[in-house]
Amino acid sequence: MDVKLKLPGVExxxxxxxxxxxxxxxxxxxxxxxxxxxxxxxxxxxxCSGRH
Length: 52
Fold this sequence. Notes:
alpha+beta
């Protein structure tokens, strides 16, 4: 997989093939983020409710 990161004044690119350990870590992070319960109440126009 070709990847590229562009920031003001710098660009890094290369090829990256995730291994099983990286895939597992990415999955754990994904699950943690999508199942997180906020501890601060959000107004109707804040956050992402999954409804668009």
